[in-house]
Amino acid sequence: MRSHARNSRLAEVRNGLYWAGLLLLGLGWLCLVVISAGTALSDTRYPHIVGYLGLAVAALLAVFTMDKWVKVLPGLLGISIFNAIMVLANGYTGVDRSQQVPRPTAAALLIGLVVCSILANTLRSRGLDTVDRTALLGFLFSFGWAIARFPSLLGIGLMLSFLGIAWAHDRCGRHRRVHGVWPISRRRSVGTDLR
Fold first, then answer.
1. Engineering a disulfide at 37: which of 19, 64, 148, 195 sits with its beta carbon 3.0 to 4.6 angstroms away?
2. pLDDT in tens, 160-171
3. Model pLDDT for residues 82-124, shown as the tens digit of each residue
4. What predicted TM-score, i.e. pTM, was given to this entire model?
5. What is the 3-state secondary structure (H, E, C) of the chain?
6. Is 189 inside a domain boundary?
7. In total, how many domains does the chain have?
8. Is 45 a domain residue?
């Protein structure tokens, strides 16, 4: 009996360390994206090509580990939501008071990030197909754009669009598997039967 409880605790510790490791790797990847995007898109002492190479490495890492990091994506977006709340409360970003962010813009960023987190949560429990992977790659580029050009409503809008595409594709696919037809074509056929 004691060995079973001990194995159970050991399994819980391993699971906790696994998820903590994934979160730390995700934060490390996010730092790579932020630094590389800043180097590529702004004037620094490093050449722009260094930033673009860093973004290319981050994109390759994201593609090859997509099945893993999609499970922690809502948590990473939660960190961004916390940052947006701080920007909304303070009226500026980070510790630099000179980088003022208008409150309506901060509120729009917060709402967009909350909706992105809700949509990203739907990706955790299902297998990813080609459309999901393409949409997630577009989401990552939009996320990098939104971070590099903060506050970027265009970046948040693109993030929402890509996650919305993945969500809509899943919903239509589920409907088709259950009913044997795409939702739009079913409505058309019902409309023609009524005439």
1. 148
2. 899 899 888 888
3. 888 888 888 777 666 777 778 888 888 889 889 988 888 888 8
4. 0.67
5. CHHHHHHHHHHHHHHHHHHHHHHHHHHHHHHHHHHHHHHHHCCCCCCHHHHHHHHHHHHHHHHHCHHHHCCCHHHHHHHHHHHHHHHHHHCECCCCCCCECCHHHHHHHHHHHHHHHHHHHCCCCCCCCHHHHHHHHHHHHHHHHHHHCCCCHHHHHHHHHHHHHHHHHHHHHHHHHHHCCCHHHHHHHHHHHHC
6. no
7. 1
8. yes
